[in-house]
Structure formats: C-alpha cells, structure tokens
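We give this protein:

***
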Amino acid sequence: MGKGRALVLLALLAVAVAVAVAYEDMEGGGEGGTGRREGEEQFLLQDSEEVVRTDAGYMRVVRSPGSKFINTPPIHIGFITMEPKTLFIPQYLDSTLILFVRTGEARVGHVYKDKLVERKLTMGDIYRIGAGSAFYLINTGEGQRLHIICSIDTSQSLGWNTFQSFFVAGGTYPASVLSGFDRLTLSTAFNVSEGDLGEMLTRQAKGPIVYLSDTHTQSDTPRPRSLWSKFMDMEDHVKMGYMRRIVRINEDNVEEEGGGGSEWSFRKLLSSFFGRTGKKDDSKARGKGPDPYNIYERKPDFENNYGCSIALDNSDYAPLKHDDIGVYLVNLTAGSMMAPHINPSATEYGIVLRGAGTIQVVNPNGTLGMNAKVTEGDVFWVPRYFPFCQIASRTGPFVFFGFTTSARDNKPQFLAGANSLLHTMSGPEFAAAFGLTEERLREIVQAQKESTILPSAAVAPPEEGAPVMGGFASVW
C-alpha cells in the first residue's frame, strides 16, 4: 500500500514539474516565451475574425493562442451560419474540421477514399471532414438558419496557427484554384476551348456562401434558378455524366507537374469531388463512408441531480482517432459546479451553448489565473494540467460543448468530491503535507458526499434581480 502511494506521489510530482515549466513559458520566462496575457480573462479566446460574409451566410473563426507551452498544434473554433436553402460552395482546407450541428439541418458532401459521400446532418450531429478533402455544405432546413460549430485542427496546415481554404469551384469571387493555371494548359487538360473555360471561371461572383435560388429576394417574381441549384438537383447519373466532361484531364500532363501520385493532385481533387469516372455504377460513390454521431442521443457518462456530462473518444466515434481530438458536452443545473479537476492528457476548448456561468482556472503556483463570467457564445480554453472548474449561474442551466486535444479517454483527475484524489489518497502522507492529523483530514475531505458535479449555491449567487431557477436545459 505504501509503495503504491509513493508511486502516485511520484507521478504527481512529475505533473507538477511539467506544469511549472509550462507556466514559466506562459509568463515569458522561458527562452522564446511569448509572454503572459495580462488581466483576468487570459483563458477566454477573443481573437475573432470574420473570414466569410455574404447575404447568404457567414463564417467566424475564434483563434487559439499560439503559446509555446501548448505541445500540440492549436485548435481554432469556427462558427458557420447559413440562411435557408444556401450552399457553402465546394472547397478543401489544409486543416481538419470536426462539425457540430447546433441548430438546423444540413447535407454535407465530401471526399472519402476517393469517392463522393453525402450525409444528412441534424441537430446534435458530429461529423469529420479531413484536411485536403473537398466538401460542400447545404442548409436543407425549411425556413431555419443553420448554425454549426467546428474545430479547426491545424496540425496539417501550411503554417503553424493558420488555416487556408482552397475553392475548387468559384469565379471572380471567390476565385477557383483552377483560375491560377495558364488558360492554354487548362483548355488542354479539360479538352474545351478557352472561351468555355472563361465562361466557367467568371460567372460566380456572389461569394463562398450562395443561395441555391434567387427566390429569397424581396421581389415577388422568382428569378431563374441558379447554376448551383440546377447542379445539386440533378439525378446522380446525369450529374456524373455532366461532370465527366470536366474531369477528362490528361494524366501525362499531371504527372509532368509532379502531382500524379499526390493526394493533393489537381486531377484527383476534381475526380474525387465529383465521383470516380469510368465506372458503370456511379451511385456507389455516394454511399460508403462514416456516418455522423449524434451526441444528444447518447446516454450521459455521468449524471446526478446537479447535471450530466458526455465525453466522446475514438472508441465511441472512430473518425476522431485520425486527428486525436475528443468531444464533450456538459449540462449543469442552476447553481451547480463541475468539481475542480485537471486534464492530465489534453488541452480543453469550450463554447457556451446556453445560459451563463463562471470559469475559474488556477495557475501552477496556486494563484487564481482567471475567474471570468461567461455567457452564450463565449469561447474558453484550459491548458493541460491546469486546475479548473465551471460554475453555473443560479438563474438557469449552464450548457457548454467543446473539444479536447486527445481522442483517448482523458480520465480527468478531480480535486474535490467523493471521487477526488484527496479522497482516494487520504493517509499520513497527505495529512503531513497539509499539516493536519489523518482524522481531521478525513473529516474535511469526506464532508462532500457528491462527486463530479456538485451543488454550489454559495459560490454561484444569482444576478441582481434575477429569479433563481433549477432543472436541466430543455435540449438534451
């Protein structure tokens, strides 16, 4: 028993050393340190940039800090909003996306093992689109906006802490990647005239998110259906036959460019997006691939009177293993608390879906690193090893969703509650460390009978003039 405790204490010492080194870099004391962000909101992500906006929708990206002590590439958080009957036009990224449908319904088409796969997505669905995989996204909901939250994993990106879109289709805005090729080279590759190419590469000027028809305008007279709408409504065999004209590219020309065997080659991108050519049964190019995983339909991993939580890893949803990213969802009742804990194997990113609360993060030296109020739409992050907790406001439920930098079971270590480290390891070593007798230490540690999610009305006062409420959020 004593040997076991010694091993655990040694492991905790190793964690403490690692955190201390990380904290030194965070403070800017280490060589090449970027310096610590001042103020009490250093763990709130507020570097937000609108990367796309049209009358049909927009995409906003909240960037992760590029701190030296994060030993994995940073994960950015994307927010996509699309009006009804709109299309996010075909593109590919140098980064992997994990999509979460917050509200609405969508249809996503993307390349999976050189084939075009389409899946219907509904509220609560999780879906992965790999880096370099051409994809499109359609809001299929009737009269409802589509809201998607996504992680943007930059581990395969062209530059650290950045990501880049490459539009396969486009025109003058956005420009297609095809536009960069010499017209003579491109006309030879497509076996069409330069005039035909000019028509294809100059007609689109409405941006990356477009309406599938023009009936959304204030005019009572419907305009002709858009090119995108006509293409998306084609029968599979008609669409595939039409696209064969586009993907007839001379393999010898591609190989001369050095891209014949590359996953990112020009021909492979086009033929993958629009389906493999030269096969009689083109319908198979749409069906085989991973299905979405609905996190709202999952039974909670933990649940008590004060809240519930779900954590998805690669054993639950296999596509997560490719990028080593986990997904979680927490629902706290009014006034409750996710007990103070640490993540020993992952950095955590969180997005507030509903309600309000407080995020507390503790520095390795025992000082309070952040005590910030958060509301719907706020994004926070917690570095690996740093102790933290989330506290719901007493005005209503507090729901937050997020991503972690590990697709394996994270096994959080709780610092308070019936399942805490102090409860498990209570003995002479810990008593001596606190300067208490074993009996007194047990009295304090065992006073809390609940675990993981705790009642915490004393530290979650209601907002002035706001009613106190209870119960879970209506969704999930």
Observations:
- Residues 344 and 385 are 5 Å apart (CA to CA).
